[in-house]
Amino acid sequence: MSEQTCILVLGMGPLASAAARLLFLAGYSVALHQAEDPKILRRKMSFADAWAGGVACLDGVEARCARREREFLAGLRQKGFIPVLTRPIAGAVERWPWDVIVDGGRESGARGEEDLFEAPFRIGLGAGPRAGEDCDLVVATDGLDPGAVIRAGGAPAFRPRAEWGFHQAGLAHAPHAGRFRAEREIGVLVARGDILGHIGDTPIVAPRAGRLIGLRRPGAAVAEGETLADVALDSLTPFSGVDRTEQAIARAVLLAVQMELNGWEQVELKGLV
Fold it and tell me: What's the predicted TM-score (pTM) here?
């Protein structure tokens, strides 16, 4: 690998964002790539708000949308921020000598991005990628052991980590296609029936009382049936920053990268367990 290890993280959901943030803090040159508008509700737990041309901050780390090649290069080389790439920039992104690809695109609705880029070492996040087939290893994001490193096969299928048995009751969906106009902010308390936004003249209302922990990006074009909001019964449910599960998964990604750079050594457990 090169002296300046370059890592491309695919996707902009909470998992991909947490991994990108920790890799950036560890001193690596990191970029995020998302070709399409990320279908992320918990935007304050990710870098997703930078996709539409802006800036997003996640627990002290800034990500900026890079529309030009020089912005991409500035972020990657100077390491002052994480550049967000919404499309290949003059071919530079696809041809860049990436050392590591971290594929978290499924979380944010990315499709086919993983095939655009080559790297000597690939990490898949969650269910879908299979270690030994389309990536070198997989980091589990769900099940009994989130953060587990899998070197052969796949990880358990994703299941929402939320209030057991009540998650779907807190979701609001688009009754028809259109452009979503949000009228609330993530983190506020809402009552059942409160207006969260509109699609055209159709109001989108809170399905129950609680804390608004997730909301689609204002101005996003949505299809009929897409999830627009998430209301948690528990007012203490995290809605911003990196939570404990994402931290564990990000640490596993960082460990895998460091082990790949420094060489994998077998751990002798005889007499210890």
Answer: 0.88
